[in-house]
Amino acid sequence: MRIGIIGSGNIGGTAARLFVNAGHEVALSHARRPEALRDQVAALGPRARAATIEDAADFGEVVLLAIPWRSRDDLPADRLRGKIVVDAMNPHRPDLSLYDLGDSTSSEEVAKALPGARLVKAFNHLRAQDLATRGDARLPVEERTALFLAGDDEEAKRVVAAIVDDVGFAAIDTGSLRDGGRLQQAGGPLALRVIGAAAARAALLRRDEERARDAGAAHQPT
Predict the structure, then answer these.
(1) Is residue 155 part of a domain?
(2) What pLDDT does residue 217 have?
(3) Distance CA 178, CA 194 (A)
């Protein structure tokens, strides 16, 4: 698969390495000229190329976003319309504190900036070091480290889940951009969690059971 990556830092660069090692083609981009990525792309091998942000968006069947969240309005929204777009960003301020989003979530705000994109929240909740080292495609899925994803487009989530499987993690669906995205974005209960697939599924099942009990109790006559 062709994957465009917008952002070449810790997460974008790590994801690029995982993708090429799994046999995907990658176009890596950042805010500067593509020539500045020459050494990084050379180290990734022949499946990687340097690109402008616009070219990476055009190249990718799937496009991963790994730039500062505050720069989301600079993304080429017209080129991402209709594409499967993976939001690996978190709502950090420059001082690494979190923006107050009120009742919204970070990916819902990204979706507003990218109308028509098929947005999936993923590759955002692990540190770059864990992303680089915890994947192992040789393991059975239930023995792998969980990599959470959320979204409102079921087909897009299936495509991203297949990529997650390719790079050696277990894709664990947390739900919608609103509910699941809130769980796994920075500051959420799943952020930075290194957890096995079986344990992750059990935790999400407990959450669903608790929500069902709470909903039932709220409807009991007083």
Answers:
(1) yes
(2) 67
(3) 22
Residue 144: inside a domain: yes
**In CATH, what number is assigned to the domain containing residue 120?**
3.40.50.720
Q: What is the value of pTM for the model shown?
A: 0.92
For residue 222, the model assigns a pLDDT of 57
Provide the domain count of the chain: 1
Task: With beta carbons less than 8 A apart as the criterion, state whether 114 and 85 touch.
Answer: yes
How many CB atoms are closer than 10 A to CB 17?
19
pLDDT score for 214: 64
Distance CA 86, CA 80 (A): 11
Which residue numbers in the chain have pLDDT < 50?
none
Q: How many other C-beta atoms are found inside a 10 Å radius of the C-beta of residue 89?
A: 27
**Owning domain of residue 99:** 2-197
Confidence at residue 177, expressed as pLDDT on a 0 to 100 scale: 96
- DSSP state string for the chain: -EEEEE--SHHHHHHHHHHHHTT-EEEEE-SS-GGGGHHHHHHH-TTEEE--HHHHHHH-SEEEE-S-GGGGGGS-HHHHTTSEEEE----B-TTSPBP--TT--HHHHHHHHSTT-EEEEES-SS-HHHHHHS--TTS-GGGSBEEEEEES-HHHHHHHHHHHHHTT-EEEEEESTTHHHHHHSTTSTTTT---BHHHHHHHHHHHHHHHHHHHHHHTS--
Q: Does the residue 215 lie in any domain?
A: no
